[in-house]
Each structure stands twice: as C-alpha cells, then as structure tokens.
Specification:
By secondary structure, the chain is mostly beta strands. 6% of the residues lie in helices and 40% in strands. The strands form four sheets. Strands 4-5-10-8-7-11 form a six-stranded antiparallel barrel. Strands 1-2-15-12-3 form a five-stranded antiparallel beta sheet, with no helix packed on it. A two-stranded antiparallel ribbon has the order 6-9.
Length: 206
Amino acid sequence: MALPDDINIASMEWGLMSFDLGNTNGDTGSTQVAVLGPQRRTCAIVSNEREEDPEMMARWRVLLHAMRGRVGRIAVWDVRSPEPRGTARGVWTVAAATAAGATSVTLAVAGQNGRTVLMGDWVGVHQDATGAAHQLLHVQADAVAQDGTVTLQFEPALRVSLAAGAVVVWDRPTCLMRRTSNETSWKDTPGNFQGGYSLDLMESWE
C-alpha cells in the first residue's frame, strides 16, 4: 500500500538506523567499527493533535487498520519534498549498468541540458519491486545535465544492481516500510475531535 495523499500530516520525522558493532581498546582508546548490515530508513508520521473533520478521522483509522500491525508494508514518500529542488524533469533512465554497492550513477536525461539535480533531492530505483531492489536514494551533491546525461552521487549505496535503461523516479519516490510497534492507539476527546494518530516505521525489504 502507499501513503495516502489525502490525509492530514502534522509532521514526518525521518532518520537512519545503522547496524554497527563498535569496540574500543581500553588501553589506547582506539575504536573499531564493523558494519553488520545496511542502514535502514526510519520515519515517524504524526497527525494533527486536534482533528475535527470526521472524514479525516476516518481516513486515519482506515490507514491504521490497513497496516494490520507489523504485517503490512507501506510505501512512504517525503510529503515536504515530493519533487526535486533541482530543475531537471522528464524521463530519467540509467545510462549504463551500475553494480550493487555503487554510490553514483549516470542517467540519460533527454532534453534536460543545463538543468540541475541538487543535493538533498530524492530519487527512487526499482520502485515497482517489493524486495531489496526497491530503494530511496538521497542525492549528495549538486549535478548539472550535459550532453543528455547527468551523474548523481547518492547514499546509501545501491543494494541491487541497476540495468541500463532502468527508470529512475524523481516524482514522489518511495521507501518500503513496516511499523516498529505492535500497538495502535489514538485519542478520542469529548467535543467531537480526535488526535494522536501516528505511525512509527522502519525500512523493510524482506
């Protein structure tokens, strides 16, 4: 399921969860860190504290029920940045096959010469996939399209390789997430309003 665009959202709190194992030498103070797994994105979505529209209350309850606890997954996009800050638009495709583990990719962007993709923009790859290939990438540096291509630097690294010609999504790219809690609740207050709807989520590609 996808994050509905017809519910009121007061805030989204994005983050990254790292799975690192650290060890510090008690004599020298030197530190070693081992990476135990790829980073996963987190997102806390919160409703208005005081929601007075009965239909909007119902929409939030429908969403919470549809998640079915931690079973369901939801495709989440950044509601504050649904499109790039940069000026490049049109159809973006991978110009040459790119291996898993890469942190840059060259895209074919016909008709976009001189237009930009800016640091902080979001792009999505394998957006139709439901497993590890589905990924939301964060652009790390400004880039300008030249000769019909643009090279993007991004993080985290690709989990799955990209084939030449694969589509890269810039319009509401999403991250697949599951709830981190088994409990769902909201406040029902005398005076005909509700609030306290929330979703605490972590990226999940299993």
